[in-house]
Records
---
Amino acid sequence: MLALGLETSCDETASALVDGEGRILAEKVLSQLDEHRPFGGVVPEVAARAHLEHLDHLIAQTMAEAGVTFQDLDLVAATCGPGLIGGVFVGAMTGKAIALAANKPFVAVNHLEGHALSARLGTGLPFPYLLLLASGGHCQILLVQGVGNYRKLGGTIDDAAGEAFDKTAKLLDLGYPGGPAVEMAALKGDPARFPLPRPMKGRPGCDFSFSGLKTAVRLAVDRNAPLSDQARFDIAASFQEAVADIMADRLCQALSMAPGVGHLVVAGGVAANRALRARLQATADRQGVAFIAPPLSLCTDNGAMIAWAGIERFRLGLTDPLDFAPRPRWPLESLNANVIR
Ligand code: KG4
Ligand code: ZN
């Protein structure tokens, strides 16, 4: 089994070849950080053009590195949403063109399902498991019961977790991209110096809210202006600590809502944060469940998770027609209806 996976839904242009055992034969990820840095965030139009310019070469390099041709593929998988629609179009159309030209099945992959199944890539992790999906556009806790079988236990009622990191980085003038910048700054800071709020902590259910935390960061910045480097580091550390507290609390709640689940998985760009991973590992240990954090390169956007989700769906006979419409919004739970169990 050999799958080509394409990812273009945000600011990473990525392609990868994955086999049926979850081995990554070749993988290319091109970040568009330099293109977006002058704007302090991802500009959809700039992203779409950059995907268009680079995707062909990236695929050619991926194929050459693995020493395979399109004829060797069993399927072509491409992210068809949710995401920035201009970029999604580029990946979806390219994937469809390859599938058509080489006469191979096409799988339209939901980007969130790519993240959700990434923990099974090469690990054989069994269903069900509890998943915290925390990225630039999403923050939700899901019970992953099977391929295309998701139960959302909670989600953010305002900002996504990655968005909160990105906005905090902007307020602190830490540069772009925000998440890794906050993590670096926090390493040099005192997490106890600024008592920031923990919205939703202790509430029933496992929803999230980050907008109040963001406002509190803004107030701390204003009150301490002009910020010294140390104040910047301390606010970053205090913010990260608050996020860790909130996530640990929400996951404990979720575990109580899904008794019998033995694995807690994190995925999405925010799951690349080492401090958060350490905190969630400790939480899982205390709760008596195994903690699974995919390698950092599988947490941020990549083609391998798309190829793998393609393989998982293909094995269930779930391929898609070439007129499948790319979509900016595509809730994970809407996949449930399409799986024959
Ligand atoms: O999953 P992802 O690569 O793209 C989306 O699907 O959104 O996630 C990107 C998000 C950004 O908001 C970024 O700031 C955040 O993940 N992120 C981090 C870290 N690395 C990336 N947040 C906190 N700490 C990090 N080390
Ligand atoms: Zn993502």
---
Amino acid sequence: MKKKRKLLVGNWKMNPQTLEEAKKLFSGIKKQSQSLLHTDIVLCPPHLFVSDVVKINKQKIISVGVQNVYFESAGAFTGEIGPIMAREIGCSYTLVGHSERRTRGESDEVVGKKVKLALSEGLKVILCIGEKERDSEGNYLGFIIEQLKHSLLDVSKNDLDNLIVAYEPVWAIGKTDAEAMKGKDMHEMSIFIRRTLGELFNSVDVSGVKILYGGSVSSNNTADLVGNGEVDGLLVGRQSLAVSSFMEIAGIVDTI
Ligand code: PGA
């Protein structure tokens, strides 16, 4: 059977501080990514650095994404960028609904509008979902269903191949790798997310939707999360800020 390609996404957040550092980090990852056989790499630098890193990625060895887009294409929206702008400058992906944006007031409704417009403008959307905390009654599962439902309200089933769901439990982001989710728990969540997607899209084939895990990923937990977690890839924050740590993770993902 043909091995399904994995996706490894680096979310640089508001890092690094200079364009020189950004170009160096991007070039280093790009160079080493050439040896990967089964893994696609996406890097999401801060908006201001995107057009410069795209220029050093002429052969498109890796893909570039933005960390956020607005839900309108143009207009009087100070400080925002639209999906067409992102696509025109050379991005093929966008993150939408990262928890660090949701805590600054981004609602499910706004996330849903962003997902819809970005998909219709031809970007691949990495929709971030995840509960703040877990409870023994399993209420967090209802929370995940609601997040998916609202975020995917107007998405047509024809767009599903361009949708990636990144499950990032908020309690696991920015912690030590020992505090990240365990592979066996992620396995349950992968099944749950896929089942929910199936229900939301009236039982159409949702196998084309990639499911990623994010939250304190490092080379120590990569094999467990990808191997036992049944995910199609990972969304990496801090460990994507150095070529060596990111490529160590990539090397492990590529062999699973
Ligand atoms: P982290 O961030 O890997 O630094 O925990 C992940 C994320 O927020 O996407």
